[in-house]
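Posting for a labmate who doesn't have an account.
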Amino acid sequence: PQGEYAYKNGWSLAALGALVLAIRPNLPGFLVTVKWLPAGSVPAFFVAAYDYAWFLGFTVAFAVYLGLRRILNPV
């Protein structure tokens, strides 16, 4: 329960934090792509970044997960 991969009430706070922070930069481009937001309301960087959502999301999630694991579960 207190090991390196510990979780609280069935949830890994590091994994959930990484998931939320990895989705955030891709969300504006997604909303423009599915036409829920007009293209002019979102900076062009986010719309272009959505083309690389898998790579961007993976990179952000990987870095955030490692950082949060070190902060939340120091071993």
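Reply:
Got it, the structure tokens are right above this. The first helix runs from residue 13 to 23.
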